[in-house]
Amino acid sequence: MKQIFVIAVLGLCATVRAQQVYQLTEPAQPKAIRSNHLRMGGVNPQGERIDVNSFYMEMAGRPVIPVMGEFHYSRYPAEQWEEEILKMKAGGVTVIPTYVFWSLHEEVEGQFRWDGQRNLRRFIELCKKHDMAVIVRIGPFCHGEIRSGGFPDWLFAKPLEVRSNDPEYLKIVKRLYTEIGKQLQGLYYKDGGPIIGCQVENEMQHSAAPWAITYAGEPKDNTAASYNAGEAMIGVGNQARKATGAEMGNLHMQLLKKMAVEAGIDVPFYTATGWGNAAVIEGEAIPVTAAYTYPFWAKPHMSRFLMFKDLTKEADYAPTRYNPEDYPSFCAEMGAGIQMIYGARPIVTAQAAEGLMVRTLGSGSNGIGYYMYHGGSTPKQIGGVGSFQDEPMGMPKVSYDFQAPIGEFGLEGKMYRNLRLLHTFLADFGHLLAPMEPVLPADWQQMTPDNREHLRYAARIKDGSGFLFMVNFQDHDTLRHDQSGIVKLNLKNETISIPVTLPKDESMILPFNLDMDGKLLKYATAQLLTKISERPRVGDGTSGIKGTPHYFFFAPEGVKPEFVFAGGRTFRPVAGFKSTFTYKGIKVTTLTRQQALNALKVNGRLLITDATVLPAADGATLLSLGNHQVNYVVYPSKQGFKTQTASVAPVTPQFEVKKAGPRRMSVSVTQQAASQVQEYFLRINYVGDVAMAFMKGQLVQDEFYHGEPWTIGLKRYANDLKTDPLTFYFRPLRKNAPFLGDLPKKAVPDFANGPVVEIKNVEVIPEYKFNIKL
C-alpha cells in the first residue's frame, strides 16, 4: 500500500501550506541498462575487472563515478610532479587525463624527446606510486591551446592532408604512436599499471586550431582536412549539421584506434570527444562531453549548463553523432575554470564551478572530469625564442593557469574546496548514486536561465531511494535570491515531502530513503559529505565503539538541518562540532559549510584544516602560504573535535626590488635554505594590461591582468636566482581595452589621465610546511 510520509510537526503545517510545492515522480519502470553492445573492459593481474555498461562503470564489481582531473605533465616542472599528484588526490581526483603533445616531443622531425618535463613514463610511474589512474590523450591532434593544436611545425610543410585517411599522414602518425607505445610499455591496467584509458584525436570534424604559420590580417588557416576546413570551429559549441565526409571521419577514428592498439596501447576503454556532431568510434569508445559556462570563444550570456536535463538522453552541445542512451554520460571537459585570451578575460567563480557539477551529477552523469583541473606553464621552443602556446588565438605566450582548481604554480584555486565537497561525497557514496536514474520535474523544459522565481531541482532515484539535487546559481546573473518550498517526491510506494531552503548562489544534494547501516533516513535537509568507521586504535586514546559508523553532513548558513528517520524520529541539530547525535548505533555530525570546505579523509580519518594537504602513509604534510602556524582537527583522535595547532619558526625572505620607470623592475631574491619552507612565492600587486617576466634574457612567465595580484612560484627558478634577478615589464591598460567588461568594477582604474600602469607593491611570501601524524 502506498504510504504518505509528511512533516510530523504540527507547528510547521501553516508554513508548509503557504510554500510553493514542487513535485517529482519516480518512473513506473526502472531504467534499462545494457552492456553487450559495447566492446570495452579489462582485467588486471589481481583479477579485478573494469567494465562499462550503457549507464555507468564498474571496478572490481562495484559501480564507480570516476573523478577525472586534467593535468599536463609537460606544462609543469618534473621535480614537482609528485607534490602536485598528491594535491590532486587530496582534492578527490581519482583519474588524471593528460595530453601527449606531439610537437613538444618531436619538435625536430625524427628526433623524439622524453626527457625532463617531457618524461611521460616517469609521470605515469609517479601516478602508479600514489594509486592514481591515468587516461593518456595521444592525439595526434590535441589542441589544448598548444601551437597548431600540437602538430609540429614541420608537418605543415608536407604535401598531405592532416586529420584524414591520407596514407602519408597515417604513416607519420603510426610512427608517433609507436614511440608513445614504447614509453607506456608495462604501465597498462592489464600489467598492474595505472593506465585505464586512452583518447585518440580530439574533436574530430568539430573543432580545429589555427595553424601557427600565419600573417597579420590573413584569415586563419585551420588544422583540418581541406574538405572540413570551412566547417571546423574554434572552441566547443553546437554543430547542427554533420560534417562533410562524416563517414570518412568515423573511419579515421577507427583507423587511429586500430593503430594505437597495434602500437601496444591496450586499455580497458577508449574515449572520444563526442560533442557537437564530432566523429566517434561506434561501440568501441566512450563519447565524452563538455560544458563551459564562461567560454572565452563566445560572447557572455546566461548558459543552460546550470539547468537540469537528462544527459543520458541528450548530451550537452547536442546534436551528437552517437545515441547517448548507448553509453554512460562521462563529462570529461567541464569548465570549472577557463583560459584567458587577450581580448576576453572571463572570470569563473567557485559557486559557478560547484553549481555546474551539482547540475551535471543530478542530470545523470556518471563520470565527471575537469579541463583543466591543474594549470601549468607552456615550455619554450628549442632555443627559447618561439612559443608553443596558441598565439593566433590570443593566448598568453607561457601562462596556462586556466583559473583551475589547482593553479599554474600549484596553489589552490578558489573552486578547489567547493569541488572537493562533491568528490568526497562520491568517494563514499558514488556506488549508490551511479545506478540511480535522473528524474526531472514535468515542466523542466519550460525552465529558462533567467527564471529566478522557481526552484531548479532534479533527483536521482533507484528503488525509492535517491538524492535530490538543487541549484540556485546562474552564470552571468547577479539578481538571484534565496529560495524555499516543499519538494514532493511521488515514489512508487510512498510520498515524501521535503522542506527545502536554498540560499542565493548555493547548490545542494539531499538524501532520501538512505540506508545508514540498517537505519533508514527518510530525508535530511543537510548535505551528505562522508562516512568513517570509529575503531579503537592502539595508543591514540580513541574511545569509540568498534566499527561505529559515523556519518558527516553539512549545512550552508541559513539552512536549518533536519533529519527524519523511519518511524518519525527527528533530529534538528545546530551545525558545528557539537551537533553530533547517536541513533540506534550510528553517529551523525552536521558540520558548518566552512568546516566541510576544510574537510577531507586521510587514512580513514577526517582531517579539517584550512591548509593545503599532501596525504602520506602515516599522516600528512600541511602547506600554508604566509602562515607559520596552522590549526587542524583530526577525528577520531584522543582530542576529538578539539582544534590542534602546528607551528614552525617564521622566515623573513630577503629580496630587493629595483624599479626603472613605471613599467619595468627587477627582483633579486635570496632563497634561504629552511626546512620549514616548501617554496617561496613572489606576489606583485599591479594594474596594467599584460605583465611579462624574464630570466637571463628569456621570457619565462606572463599574465593577462584581471584584477588579482600576480603570484609566481620561485622553486623552478631557484638555481638561476642565485646569480640573476627576475626582470619584469608591464604594459599600460587603456580605456578602450576590449576586455574591461569582464573585469570586476573595482579592478578597472580611472583613465582620466590616460593609460594606466602601476606597480603597487611587491612581496616574497614563504609557503610553510608542517608534518603531522594521524
- Beta strands, count: 43
Query: Are there runs of 5+ residues with pLDDT below 50, and where?
Result: 1-17, 538-545
Mean pLDDT reading:
94
Number of domains: 3
- Cα-to-Cα separation, first versus last residue: 50 Å
Report the structural category.
Answer: alpha+beta
* Highest-level CATH class of the largest domain: Alpha Beta
CATH evolutionary superfamily of the largest domain: Glycosidases
Strand arrangement, major sheet: 7-14-13-12-11-10-9-8
Shape: globular
Under CATH, the topology of the largest domain can be stated as TIM Barrel
Estimated share of beta-strand residues: 25-35%
Count of alpha/pi helices: 10
Report the major sheet: 8 strands, parallel
CATH architecture of the largest domain: Alpha-Beta Barrel
Helix content: 10-25%
Question: Over the alpha carbons, how many angstroms does the gyration radius reach?
Answer: 26 Å
Structure notes:
The model is unreliable at 1-17 and 538-545 (pLDDT under 50). The chain is α+β, with helices and mostly antiparallel strands and 774 residues long. It has ten helices and 43 strands. It folds into three domains: 3-27 and 444-531 and 553-587, no CATH class; 56-431, Glycosidases (TIM Barrel), CATH 3.20.20.80; 654-773, Jelly Rolls (Sandwich), CATH 2.60.120. Strands 7-14-13-12-11-10-9-8 form an eight-stranded parallel beta sheet, with helices on one face. Strand 36 and strand 37 (664-670) form a beta hairpin.
